[in-house]
Amino acid sequence: MNTRIQMHAADPAAEEVSSGEQCHPAESAQHDRYMIVPHGYSAGDSGQVWIADFNGPESASDAQSGGAVASPLRYWLRVEPIEGTAATLARESACRDIPVVFDRSAPGVGFTLVTLALLPDVRYRLSLWQQQESAHQLADAECRGRPSTLKDGFNVWYGTCFYGDADGGALSKAMDALPAAYRPQVSFLGGDQVYLDTAFSNTGWGASVIPGFSSRNFSPLGFHSRSKIRRKLNAVFTAEYLRNWRRGLRTKLRQGFHYFLAGDHEFWNDFPNPPGFLPTLWSRKVRDTWQSCARDLFDAYQLPSGASSSQFDVADALKFFVLDTRLQRASGQDANFTDTQTFAAATTWLRELDRPGVLVLPAPLLTRWQFRDGGLLKSLRVKLGLGDHSLADTGQYQDLVRAIRDCSQDLLILAGDVHFSRLARFDLGGKQVVEVVSSPLACLPSAVAGADQTLAVFPDRPTDHIHAEVEYLQAGSAIGDGGKRAANSCNNNFVTLRFEPGTVDGDVRVQILCWNITGCDAQQAPSVDWEMQDLVLRKRSVVNSETVPPIAPKDSATQTEEMSEPC
Known about the structure:
By secondary structure, this protein is α+β, with helices and mostly antiparallel strands.
């Protein structure tokens, strides 16, 4: 682009374009319109950045997903290195300006996905600028290049289930106050970042009494044309995404790279199975249109890369696999939770793992099989759409269990969805498997739950005589407002994990903290609900692995190629 920006070290907020005109910080209305979200690592040392304009397309209810949003304005993304070793920063001492075109669209949003070349371990400030009569900054975010070593630690964040009406700004405050030592380089949002079914229900009479249940649950949408159904749904769904991205999740989404998994409420409860408590979705025509509208928005906001699973390595020490088990799930008992190719990639990753690994899921691996003999009432509730299918109820669960048994390395699983937090472990196949569960970020009032620690043996669904005794190490505290209901209600929470080198070469030490979002310590930071300081993931020999002794818990105290020019 022709516009060049001159940086001033003494006053970084005041910058000048080459014509000598003054640059201005974003006004609040403009700042609310635009957003930058770092979206995940890509090939090599690069990363993907999502940039959005929430003012287009012009009509949320009528717009279709598609191509570029026409605009006479000129935009660019500034990429500025702000922290790193002297040797690394010497390789990139100046910022870059990258032209931005909002070349994709969905109802209510124009967006693009930019791929950035990043240096390892360097922290970058990202800012979106607009050129009119002068240059204006519109949005900002931060990210860090993928580290080349664990020597300085690698911070991960995991959270699920954000019901915006119950948040009240608590998550933003918690993220602002989170101590710098725990700020994430990569975050996994494990599902239910929006509650589209509840948002629809809340537009009807009676929703103020029971959120998610109102006269709108019985709306005769099926009698309307598909185009009218789409207009009505797009209006509701777009408003829900805009509110959560521009308000409740905005502070979180500005910090580090993000991977998004789908929960059922990105569509409707227990998607893709018809929900019993939402009769308007009993119509096939409504379900198909609803799913199409919801998927368009999910792809625009949460999955612009189109990859429902992904994997990346951190240095030569740690491997990650992100597995979505909802987007491609089929309906009914024993249905597959993903396509054959994705599942083969996940099981191959497990069986070929040669160092400690982290498997990221939307929902727990340690869960009940609800269709066992003698469980007639529970299975009937699930079949009628009055309960949820667990991961163990799916057709690929047993093969996933077999792949985990065959894995030779210590494995840590991140999971959510169940509205409680928990830390558990078991020994299987000469290695340890640790499962960290975190949920919810902001709880739907009608879906509170206490920590389930009743599953004594893994797996609950019989699989090849696999039998591993489960040890529960930590569980989330109950809401402290008294009453019978509070005893079965976990506090809103998220977890952070810090990965560092272990004392033995190849081992990885993990510090896990579960943070109470609404509780504060003396420094006004979110309080620690529970923690585990001394977890070690071992790099094991395939032929000489051994069982790990139990751990003593501690008490809590696109634009595919960048075209850039220097500033």
